């Protein structure tokens, strides 16, 4: 990907090409599948508020950090750390990122497979073929999951092979506005359905008493996952970026696009949950909390689409799941690009061989997950919720104290002539050296119980 030929490193074809590809990486299942699930299981509005703070105060600074490291070194995440320091420890940061990418991709293809299979569920439902619709709606059918994950991995590998930044650019350019359009129309529809007001209130009115350490930890993990940070995906994308680009501006655009789409997804799914309840879908657990299992949106959204008449249902149901599949594809491409670029750069392997071998290896893990979807929760916990913020912390530390902010700012000056007198220059170093790494560290230590252990000692 992002190549002018299939063996060399290349550059993005155009400025908008990079921004679209980075936005394509960011916008995916994280926004529409993972975000609403986290909102529902973490007290609604309180989660949204903390999530927004995490995206802007931690995510955006880390995104600029990753892009600047990538553009400076023009290397994969492991090679980038090698290039900037002779200490053998630092490339391990990149290596951890590669591992997180591999493991996240292994479950991501399964969930992406569900999305694609729901395209068929909607078609058969509206065609009146109920038993077929039910078959395509089964999320724990191992064979079906395996087939759809394989289709997804196949599509990802073939796009990566082609060096087709063109394809991603075109797909994203078309996909984003249509996805936003469908989300808005559906929000307009759901707003007038029974239960919607409760859903909106739950989402938009923060109940501050709900803010807790686990909520903050989940919101931080969600911010990293959704913005594709902490594992070097944006080091890799930054490595194809031209010196003419204004990195902070591009990062701001990607952050806003990603946060905006997640926000819209919440506006649709929270009220849709209550609407689905009025149609008989069970959305509360026995203890009265909102149910938020990994198949939440696959319960709630079809209930919404099925409430439409046949023409509207086909148009919205089919195109929504199709677009979500495309959004997932532009994310799986970036997830696979990380280990692929690592093997190409560091072991001198041809792009074709690297992408096919790594894709096949990850597919084996996906097939195991296909038959036991309860694995998704644990892999997601270790490699997304803990793994990505940990990677982000190490990236902040490396940039702030090893490569140094001064060198990073010199790199950022390319494409940003007004940098010297900007607020960005005054503020970003404080976030990257102090605020972001301390917030991440505190949250990670809190999550493993270290902070309460220390508190008990005193
Ligand atoms: N950001 C993607 C999403 O929201 O679906 C997932 C993702 C892609 C995470 C690439 C990490 C990554 F490096």
Automatic annotation (TrEMBL):
CDD domains: SLC6sbd_Tyt1-Like. The chain crosses the membrane at residues 12-33, 45-69, 89-111, 146-164, 176-195, 215-238, 250-270, 315-336, 356-379, 386-403, 423-445. It is a multi-pass membrane protein. It is found in: Membrane. GO terms for cellular component: membrane. InterPro entries: Na/ntran_symport, SNS_sf, YocR/YhdH-like. Keywords: Membrane, Transmembrane, Transmembrane helix, Transport. Its main location: membrane. This is Neurotransmitter:Na+ symporter, NSS family.
């Amino acid at each position: 990907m992002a190549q002018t030929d299939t063996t060399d490193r290349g550059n993005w074809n155009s400025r908008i090409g990079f921004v679209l590809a980075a936005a394509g990486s960011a916008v995916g299942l994280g926004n529409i599948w993972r975000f609403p699930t986290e909102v529902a299981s973490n007290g609604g509005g309180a989660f949204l508020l903390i999530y927004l703070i995490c995206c802007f105060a931690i995510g955006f600074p880390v995104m600029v950090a990753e892009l600047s490291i990538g553009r400076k070194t023009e290397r994969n995440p492991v090679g980038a750390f090698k290039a900037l320091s002779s200490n053998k420890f630092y490339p391990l940061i990149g290596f951890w990122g590669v591992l997180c990418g591999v493991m996240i991709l292994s479950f991501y293809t399964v969930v992406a497979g569900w999305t694609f299979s729901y395209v068929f569920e909607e078609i058969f439902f509206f065609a009146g073929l109920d038993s077929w619709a039910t078959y395509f709606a089964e999320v724990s059918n191992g064979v079906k999951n395996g087939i759809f994950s394989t289709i997804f991995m196949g599509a990802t590998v073939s796009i990566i092979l082609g060096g087709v930044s063109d394809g991603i650019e075109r797909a994203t350019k078309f996909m984003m506005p249509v996805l936003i359009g469908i989300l808005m129309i559906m929000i307009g529809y759901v707003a007038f359905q029974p239960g919607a007001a409760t859903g909106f209130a739950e989402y938009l009115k923060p109940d501050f008493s709900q803010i807790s350490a686990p909520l903050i930890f989940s919101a931080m993990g969600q911010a990293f996952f959704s913005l594709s940070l902490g594992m070097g995906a944006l080091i890799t994308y930054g490595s194809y970026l031209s010196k003419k680009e204004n990195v902070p501006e591009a990062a701001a655009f990607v952050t806003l696009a990603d946060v905006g789409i997640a926000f819209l997804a919440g506006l649709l799914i929270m009220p849709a949950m209550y609407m689905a309840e009025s149609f008989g879908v069970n959305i509360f657990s026995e203890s009265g909390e909102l149910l938020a299992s990994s198949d939440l949106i696959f319960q709630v959204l079809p209930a919404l689409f099925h409430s439409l008449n046949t023409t509207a249902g086909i148009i919205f149901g089919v195109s929504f799941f199709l677009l979500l599949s495309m959004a997932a594809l532009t994310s799986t491409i970036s997830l696979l690009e990380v280990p692929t670029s690592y093997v190409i750069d560091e072991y001198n392997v041809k792009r074709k061989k690297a992408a096919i071998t790594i894709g096949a290896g990850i597919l084996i893990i996906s097939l195991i997950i296909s038959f036991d979807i309860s694995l998704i929760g644990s892999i997601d916990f270790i490699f997304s919720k803990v793994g990505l913020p940990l990677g982000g912390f190490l990236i902040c530390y490396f940039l702030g104290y090893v490569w140094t902010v001064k060198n990073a700012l010199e790199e950022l000056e390319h494409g940003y002539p007004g940098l010297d007198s900007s607020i960005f220059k005054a503020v970003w170093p404080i976030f990257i050296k102090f605020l972001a790494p301390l917030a991440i560290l505190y949250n990670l230590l809190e999550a493993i119980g270290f902070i309460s252990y220390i508190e008990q000692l005193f």
